[in-house]
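About this split. The held-out portion is used to measure sequence recovery: a designer receives only the structure tokens and must propose an amino acid at every position. Recovery is the fraction of positions where the proposal matches the reference. Here is one held-out target exactly as it appears in the evaluation file.
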């Protein structure tokens, strides 16, 4: 049996959610399952993470959009370790996992890369504890039992702990001190401030973009201009917000100046024009299914591109008809 590490526990908790997220975050929450403006799970993370991913699976499971999916079968994950975990603990992410937040920090000087997953749901602690002790060993930190697992390549260690009855935390490495030290809420945290702007989102990804090396785009004038425009984008926020039976998806880029944002919007409008021309070509009409072609044309036409100060946003609205695209690729 393979060793159980973050990636494999994440298969049961985090990776499963991200895999399912492609389907289930496209939803419209009802009643008590509605997504909150700034998810409470963010308060469990230290401030300063440059990348954060959030999924509200409880809201998605209650969504009318999700109920329109043509394939109603359970989402299967082809992973033997996850199957073993389910058999031993009874945990099923489709039924038992409600919300997940994932944060990642890249290497910084002497500090190594680190990541953390906090999952909210229903967990049988006794069964998971027995399973964890069978696969790893027990440690103690900040008043919590911490289960340590060797990585599958035996070059690292991962750790898991129950924060309370409904929350599990998983990190890379042997220490959870940066999660369990009681860091509190930092209202100046740039991620929290951006999360507040996507009020009601059932899912979002917020990421600070790394610097682009000067050597990139050092060729012709057009490459240099595009590289300069790309360097101006400092943060990206992708969010999905339910609107009735449909789903609004927004992609926002934050530039280093309003002048760069104006240039970025102009470039996006130019790309829209080229895209519409390409879809109108005889080659596209011959090679693409009519339903797929019509939907792409509608998305390009209806996409709303706006610019406010340093921010440029693309807003599109998806309908349940998006699921019909899968039928256009099925063999006849």
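Reference sequence for scoring:
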């Amino acid at each position: 049996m393979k060793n159980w590490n973050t990636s494999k526990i994440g298969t049961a908790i985090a990776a499963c959610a991200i895999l399912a997220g492609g389907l289930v975050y496209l939803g419209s929450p009802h009643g008590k399952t509605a997504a909150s403006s700034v998810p409470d799970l963010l308060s469990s993370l230290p401030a300063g993470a440059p990348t954060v991913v959030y999924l509200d699976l409880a809201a998605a499971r209650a969504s009318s959009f999700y109920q329109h999916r043509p394939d109603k079968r359970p989402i299967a994950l082809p992973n033997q370790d996850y199957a073993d975990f389910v058999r031993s603990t009874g945990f099923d992410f489709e039924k038992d996992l409600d919300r997940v937040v994932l944060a990642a920090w890249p290497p910084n000087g002497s500090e190594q890369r680190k990541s953390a997953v906090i999952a909210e749901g229903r967990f049988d602690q006794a069964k998971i504890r027995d399973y964890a002790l069978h696969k790893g060993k027990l440690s103690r930190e900040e008043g919590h039992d911490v289960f340590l697992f060797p990585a599958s390549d035996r070059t690292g260690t991962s750790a898991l702990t129950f924060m309370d009855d409904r929350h599990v935390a998983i990190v890379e490495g042997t220490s959870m001190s940066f999660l369990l030290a009681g860091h509190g809420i930092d209202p100046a945290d740039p991620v929290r401030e951006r999360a507040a702007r996507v009020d009601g989102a059932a899912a979002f990804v917020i990421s600070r973009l790394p610097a682009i090396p000067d050597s990139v785009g050092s060729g012709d004038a057009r490459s240099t201009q595009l590289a300069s425009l790309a360097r101006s984008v400092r943060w990206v926020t992708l969010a999905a917000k339910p609107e009735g039976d449909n789903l609004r998806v927004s992609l926002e880029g934050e530039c280093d100046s309003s002048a760069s944002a104006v240039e970025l919007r102009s470039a996006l409008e130019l790309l829209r024009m080229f895209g519409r021309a390409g879809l109108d070509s005889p080659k596209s009409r011959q090679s693409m299914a009519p339903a797929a072609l019509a939907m792409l044309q509608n998305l390009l036409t209806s996409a709303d591109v706006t610019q406010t100060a340093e921010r440029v946003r693309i807003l599109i609205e998806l309908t349940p008809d998006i699921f019909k695209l899968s039928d256009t690729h099925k063999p006849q």
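Annotator remark: The longest strand covers residues 233-243.
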